[in-house]
Write a structure and sequence with these properties.
The complex is a heterodimer of chains A (114) and B (115).
Chain A (H helix, E strand, L loop, with lengths): L3 E3 L3 E4 L5 E7 L5 E8 L3 E8 L6 E2 L7 E6 L2 E6 L8 E8 L9 E2 L3 E5 L1
Parallel strand pairs in A: 2-11
Antiparallel strand pairs in A: 1-3, 3-8, 4-5, 4-9, 5-6, 7-8, 9-10, 9-11
Chain B lengths: L3 E2 L4 E5 L4 E3 L2 E2 L6 E8 L6 E7 L7 E2 L2 E6 L4 E6 L8 E9 L6 E3 L3 E6 L1
Parallel strand pairs in B: 2-12
Antiparallel strand pairs in B: 1-4, 3-9, 5-6, 5-10, 7-8, 8-9, 10-11, 10-12
Classes of the chains: A mainly beta (114), B mainly beta (115).
Amino acid sequence: DVKVTQSSRYLVKRTGEKVFLECVQDMDHENMFWYRQDPGLGLRLIYFSYDVKMKEKGDIPEGYSVSREKKERFSLILESASTNQTSMYLCASSLFTGQKETQYFGPGTRLLVL
Amino acid sequence: AQKITQTQPGMFVQEKEAVTLDCTYDTSDQSYGLFWYKQPSSGEMIFLIYQGSYDEQNATEGRYSLNFQKARKSANLVISASQLGDSAMYFCAMREDYNNNDMRFGAGTRLTVKP
């Protein structure tokens, strides 16, 4: 079974803090994704990566950066957290890029920025 | 522009009955894939079912089936014989062939199964 893990289930940070969200997958997947989920908006793509050290912006990259130094690990960084980044963050991975390829998700991190 | 529309923020169904969750989509691409995911209160998104735009048959996976009407651009999820464990958020998603790194999600429908 594919396993995608995220470093924290719940996180509370203060405005202006630098925040790291870590995601690890154990199935040698090529692609990894970061989404944020907000009520009424569904999931929105922040960044994705299709290879080590490669990254591409999604729909809402502003205020975020990412790092993929190893194939299994994809980190989301909030350089200076703001209250409007309070959200649920979901990491996902997929084996290939392809129309039929489903994504496998981690359990999510609920981030509260005070 | 919103590509995936789920018009039912919340739905209730009696245990053991069937329920249909609506999903409409917008694309000019001829080749695309449609997905349904379930998100229980634990937070993890669970893949349920996939339908390709060129698939002639409606997809089925156990108690889940997809009522795919291409001309109407709808891909409704049908859950038969609802169980209490089906209570969750359900998301419809689409991936277009021209941009197959990008999966678009609807806003979701919260299904509650009543005993």
